[in-house]
Give the backbone structure.
Amino acid sequence: MERDSLLYKLRRKTQVAARYVLSDETLSKIYYRLVLGKTLHLKDPKTFNEKIQWLKLYYYPNDKNVIKATDKYTVRDYIKEKGYGRILNKLIGVWDDVNDINWEQLPSQFVLKCTHGCAYNIVVSNKEEANEKKIKKQLRKWQKEDFGNFNIEIHYSKIKSHRIICEEFLGDVITDYKFFCFNGEPQFIYVSTDLIHDRQAQLGFFTLDGEKIPLKRDDYADIEQMEKPSFFNDIYIAAKDLSQDFPFVRVDFFIANNTFYFAELTFTPGAGMMPFNPDLYDQEWGEMLHIEHLINNEDA
């Protein structure tokens, strides 16, 4: 697993140290060059990645709804306020301190998440086989981290309470439907499966009609077809409603047990360094994201 490697840990430490020395703008430009091999234009962003970079530096860190919706615990209140409490996964517990978790009282299957970052998740499909000590050690380590330091996702840094939540286990194989929503309108979906298993995850991009988009991620196996569930229109409406407050957000759902559950709201996919293959989609998606009025207000 990459995050257990020495190189990964060294990179993380270097990113934290760099933020004490260099400005967020400068670091964003450096990372953009290193990851995508391009120059980042912040004064007049054109591509999707450039506009996400602008939003994550100048807009999202100052939006209270974004901060609330980024936190894996407080987003639950946001979802309820929007009238979608029914699609929240069952909450088993929430704690400020790992030591407060009563392992014996947890069910045989569950999912633990730190609320202040991305991929801070531990899936326990069999509690009897799980290493409680190791899991709690990992959670303590994550709680100490400022996730915003790693790729200059400042809205994560604005989350002050680094809590742990426990949610109901939904199954061994879960399909994710992730709606890319531009200015309150869902436009594209990417479908992914097998993200909780060790084998390579699968991912595919599709139109809302279920047609395959010839866009690939080289780090994922490609999904060629999308099966639209009978409740697809309900998911679409939920994505549209939940995206209204934001210039861009990816609204993510789990498909399991013949229904759908809210997963998370993602404001900066790939931290604004999403690899497009072919690259032309970076330009096309950028043209669909209208933030000129926000840039003008910032410059005024």
Summary: The CA atoms of residues 92 and 166 lie 5 Å apart. Residues 6-21 form the longest helix (16 residues). The longest strand covers residues 185-193. The mean pLDDT is 93.
